[in-house]
Amino acid sequence: MSAPASAPAAPAPPAPRRRLTRRQRQRLVRVAGYLVFAAVLAGVALGADWGRLADAFFRPDIAAELFPEIITVALVNTLLFTGLAFAFGLVLGMALALMRLSSILPYRWFAIGYIELFRGLPSLLVLFMVGFGVPLAFPEAQIVGGVYGAVSFGLGLCAAAYMAETLRAGIQAVPKGQLEAARSLGMSHARAMVSIILPQAFRIVIPPLTNEFIMLTKDTSLAYVLGVTASSIEVTKFAGDALNRTVNATPLVVAGFVYLLITLPLSQLVQRLERRGNRRK
Questions:
Q1: Torsion of the alpha carbons at 68, 69, 75 and 76, rounded to the nearest 10
Q2: Model-level pTM greater than 0.85?
Q3: What SS3 state is found at 155?
Q4: Percentages of the chain per state (helix, strand, coil), in multiples of 5
Q5: Distance in angstroms (rounded) separating the CA atoms of residues 170 and 200
Q6: For every residue of the chain, which 3-state class applies, written as one string?
Q7: For residue 112, with 0-12 CB atoms within 10 Å meaning exposed, 13-18 middle and 19 or more buried, which class applies?
Q8: Does 68 sit behind a cis peptide bond, omega within 30 degrees of 0 on the bond before it?
Q9: In angstroms, rounded to a whole number, what is the distance separating the alpha carbons of residues 6 and 188?
Q10: Which residues have CB under 8 Å from 140's CB, separation 6+?
Q11: Cα(213)–Cα(263) distance, integer angstroms
Q12: What gap in Å lies between CA 128 and CA 67, rounded to an integer?
């Protein structure tokens, strides 16, 4: 009698799949992002008509014609508009911030109403109101400084609303114990605010105030609506006139670089101040 046939061996279980670790998945996603970005850049580089772009935006001969007036006149006026508007907005914003924190209800209501109103209005509309509405309402009144005063006043009204909230946050960020300690030494509330609280608050809000200065620098491009002259022209209007004269976009590119001469150093300053503040904390 023959021995029974042996049963076939059971198949080996499949090897478990090896899962990617979190770090490997992150690396894979990062590599995929680099590849997509490189593909987009390659597509733009291969599909663009560089000769036509250079002729439309980067004409050295047209750019040379803009100097030195774009620096000595347009840039100087842009800085003047910005500095005057910032100074006016800072003074008014400080007054609004203190009114916003006041225990007197009408002061708080006025500050809240002003801040909400001018934060909701476009700067262009406010400039129209200042340049054309005020002379209609008060025919005998004149804004001091001509177009410089009108632009600074209009932009400063809008900037004050934002600065007021920034300054209010800075004042409230100072520990209450500072004010209480000053009062316990016999200082009045006003003297304690001026000598103790406000200096600390300003150190806190320097970075956001610098950002506000950058925003005001760009907002000066709206000054043209008030009819700037050849002596009070700012960078954007200067570039726009050159664009109409040359029928070429090179003046706009040069104007962009001029604005970057102001904004990039200020942006770096903001970052340094923020890092210094974080180290102190």
A1: 100
A2: no
A3: helix
A4: 80, 0, 20
A5: 8
A6: CCCCCCCCCCCCCCCCCCCCCHHHHHHHHHHHHHHHHHHHHHHHHHHCCHHHHHHHHCCHHHHHHCCCHHHHHHHHHHHHHHHHHHHHHHHHHHHHHHHHCCCCHHHHHHHHHHHHHHHHCCHHHHHHHHHHHHHHHCCCCCCCCCHHHHHHHHHHHHHHHHHHHHHHHHHHHCCHHHHHHHHHCCCCHHHHHHHHHHHHHHHHHHHHHHHHHHHHHHHHHHHHHHCCCCCCCCHHHHHHHHHHHHCCCHHHHHHHHHHHHHHHHHHHHHHHHHHHHHHHC
A7: middle
A8: yes
A9: 104
A10: none
A11: 9
A12: 31
Q: What is the pLDDT along the chain (281 residues), one digit of tens a residue?
A: 455 555 555 665 665 666 778 888 888 888 888 989 999 988 888 887 788 888 888 899 999 999 999 999 999 999 999 999 999 999 999 999 999 998 899 999 999 999 999 999 999 999 999 988 888 888 877 888 889 999 999 999 999 999 999 999 999 988 888 888 887 888 887 888 888 888 888 888 988 899 899 999 999 999 988 888 888 999 999 999 999 999 999 999 999 999 999 999 988 888 887 777 667 66
pLDDT for residue 146: 86
Shortest CA distance to 79 belongs to which of 229, 211, 232, 225? 232
Q: What stretch of H or E contains 177? A: helix 176-184
- pLDDT value at position 215? 93
Contacts of 78 by beta carbon, 8 Å cutoff, 6+ apart: 217, 220, 234, 235, 262
- Residue 246 sits at the vertex; the CA angle it makes with 240 and 248, to the nearest 5 degrees, is 75
CB 270 within 8 A of CB 213: no
